[in-house]
């Protein structure tokens, strides 16, 4: 039987997984025992209200209890979808064209804004109290408002294999019209396990959640930490746009693994990159660029100190392949100064198993073995 995302957590006996949340004023920490207790609380409530194999919508910000929420949903064999807090109604309606969504978990601080934008067929059903954090469970009733998605029939695109789903996510639209992607466990789990092995991640590592929750690399970041039993560092979204604050977190938490866009890394400033992040005595073991064209070889050479030991990777993928299709380790001694020489190369064993199956234009469900489905011939050349 194929492993699930929850198996990556539950099979890690004696796990030392922990979560640290830095806000603008303080640092909060959740150890494995505390997290596990919260996972049980969430799963017990969902079990009493929602049938297994449901899709649970989430209006949740990056925070200390984020892993608990995700794992609580997965424990009851349901799947999750993160909805856009800035556009609650539009986000929900788009998902509900294809997915039956009857339960939503809303962070208490977001409840007022979310409810103002939703149809009144959504009712508060229960509260989940996790220490100093509260989640409101909203449940939808039958609706006769023709503008509400709960009054409409689903388009015939929802997977018949919904019991195998891990999560649902919407593409950004960079490769065409935005699509609702239904991701089975057996597609995302191999991606996580493969990267965990390539990056040699252990319980001693400290990973930072850099990606937004509506961007699928966030799943990789969270479950690399969960499966390896290491520390996951989370910061509020606004803090990521303040380089000085983000630098403080990276330094104070001794981050050893960073998966991020080149834009985010470069926003920290060349001085910090050269003098700290990629210095001779840097704590950073792994720097994986993804989501955008990788910086040029020339630029990376300028950044990296001569005796720096950080391994640098170029990741490429489409949401449809859940999540990274290729992984290339950059060796500055072997690569020329030309950025064009830097290319992503998919492992041979995956190329041999590229599936041809596409379901329809609205929903794409990758085959279980795929890491390279839909990969275009020159898609991962570095600009």
TrEMBL record:
Q: Where is the AMP-dependent synthetase/ligase domain?
A: 26-335
GO biological process: what's one of them? amino acid activation for nonribosomal peptide biosynthetic process
> InterPro entries of this UniProt entry?
AMP-binding_CS, AMP-dep_synth/lig_dom, ANL_N_sf, Beta-ala_Activ/Resist
PANTHER family reported in the protein's UniProt record: BETA-ALANINE-ACTIVATING ENZYME (PTHR44394:SF1)
**What name appears for this protein in its UniProt entry?**
AMP-dependent synthetase/ligase domain-containing protein
**Provenance organism:** Larinioides sclopetarius
């Amino acid at each position: 039987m194929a492993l699930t995302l929850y198996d990556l957590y539950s099979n890690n006996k004696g796990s030392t997984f922990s979560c640290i949340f830095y806000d603008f004023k303080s640092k909060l920490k959740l150890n494995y025992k505390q997290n596990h207790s919260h996972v049980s609380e969430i799963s017990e409530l969902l079990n009493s209200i929602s049938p297994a194999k449901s899709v649970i919508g989430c209006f949740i910000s990056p925070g200390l209890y984020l892993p608990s929420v995700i794992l609580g949903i997965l424990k009851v064999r349901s799947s999750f979808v993160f909805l856009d807090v800035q556009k609650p109604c539009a986000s929900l309606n788009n998902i509900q064209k294809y997915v039956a969504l009857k339960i939503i978990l809303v962070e208490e601080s977001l409840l007022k804004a979310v409810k103002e934008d939703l149809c009144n067929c959504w009712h508060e059903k229960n509260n989940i109290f996790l220490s100093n954090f509260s989640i409101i469970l909203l449940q939808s009733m039958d609706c006769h408002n023709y503008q509400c998605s709960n009054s409409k029939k689903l388009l015939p695109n929802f997977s018949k294999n919904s019991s195998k789903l891990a999560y649902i996510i919407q593409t950004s639209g960079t490769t065409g019209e935005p699509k609702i992607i239904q991701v089975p466990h057996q597609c995302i789990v191999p991606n996580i396990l493969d990267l965990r092995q390539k990056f040699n991640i252990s319980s001693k590592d400290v990973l930072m959640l850099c990606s937004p929750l509506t961007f699928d690399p966030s799943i990789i970041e969270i479950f690399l930490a969960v499966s390896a039993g290491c520390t996951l560092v989370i910061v509020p979204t606004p803090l990521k746009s303040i380089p000085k604050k983000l630098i403080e977190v990276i330094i104070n938490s001794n981050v050893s693994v960073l998966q991020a866009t080149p834009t985010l890394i470069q926003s920290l400033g060349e001085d910090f990159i050269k003098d700290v992040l990629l210095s001779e005595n840097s704590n950073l073991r792994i720097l994986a660029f993804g989501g955008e064209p990788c910086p040029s070889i020339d630029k990376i050479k300028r950044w990296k100190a001569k005796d720096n030991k950080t391994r640098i990777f170029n990741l490429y993928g489409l949401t449809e392949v859940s999540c990274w299709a290729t992984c290339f380790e950059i060796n500055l001694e072997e690569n020329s100064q030309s950025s064009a020489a830097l290319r992503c190369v998919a492992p041979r064993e995956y190329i041999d198993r590229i599936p041809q199956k596409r379901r329809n234009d609205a929903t794409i469900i990758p085959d279980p073995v795929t890491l390279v489905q839909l990969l275009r011939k020159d898609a991962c050349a570095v600009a």
